[in-house]
T-lymphocyte activation antigen CD86 (Microtus ochrogaster), 271 residues
Amino acid sequence: MVLGLLFVTVFVLSDAVAMKKQAYFNRTAYLPCHPTKAQNMSLSELVVFWQDQKKSVLYEHYFGREKLDNVNAKYLNRTSFDGENWTLGLHNVQIKDMGLYDCFIQKKTPKGSIILQQTYTELSVVANFSDPKIEVQYKDRNSGINLTCSSQQGFPKPTKMYVWIANSTNEYSDEMLISQDNVTELFSVSINLSIPFPDDVWSVTAVCVLETESMTTSSTPQDIVLPRSESNEDERKSWIAAVITALIFFTLVLVYLINRYKRKQERPGIS
C-alpha cells in the first residue's frame, strides 16, 4: 500500500508547506493530521496513517481500527492516536527522530483508494544542557586563574560558551571543545581558560554561561579567593620578626637602665 502511494506522495509534497513542531528529548512529539476534507466523515470510512521521510509507517488506523501490519518495528509501542484531535503522539523521542513526517487520509471508492488530504510536519528535537560547572585548577596573582567550564547532554550544538566576572564587563572565552555521544547523539561542551586576576582585589565571583539557538543557561556563581603569595607572607613574617626584635631590644635596654639606676641609688652617700 505504501509503495503504491510513493508517486502521489512526491507529487503532493511539491506544493506542501511543512508545519514545524518541536519536542524534548525522551518526551512525546505530537504529529498532527488536519481532516479538512474529511471532517464530516467517520474514521470507520477512512484509512489514516503516518510515515517518516524514509516512507516507514509509524501508525495506521484502518477503517476504524488500529492496524499494525505495515508499521515499522522501530515505531511499535511508541505511538498513540488521538482520534478526536487527529493527532499522533510519538513517545520517547530521540535525536534520530528529527525529520519530516506525513499524515495521509485515504478514502475507499469503487475505483480504489484516493488520498483526500496530506499533512506535512517537520520535527525538531531539543535537549536542555546541564547547568554549566566551573572547576578551578590553579589561581595565582601573577599567573591568573586557570579554570574549566563544562556542560553535558544537550542538543542542538551550542553556539557560545564564556565566563563572566561579576562586577565587571569582562567576558572570557576560548575555542569550545565539543563531543557527541555515539548512541544518544547529545553534545557535551567545555572551555579551558586562563583569566588574569584583577589588581588590588583578593577575591572575584565567576559565572559560566552557555548559549544555544534556543536557550541560555548559567552556572551557580562561584567565589574564587586568591591565596596570599609566599613573598607577601615572607614580608609579613619579616616585619613581625623585626617588631619582636625591636621590642626585645627595647626591653633589655630598659631593664639595664633600671638596674643601673637602682645600683646608683644604693651607693652610700659622701659625708
Q: What stands out?
A: DSSP finds two helices and 18 strands in the chain. The CA atoms of residues 132 and 151 lie 5 Å apart. Residues 230-266 form the longest helix (37 residues).
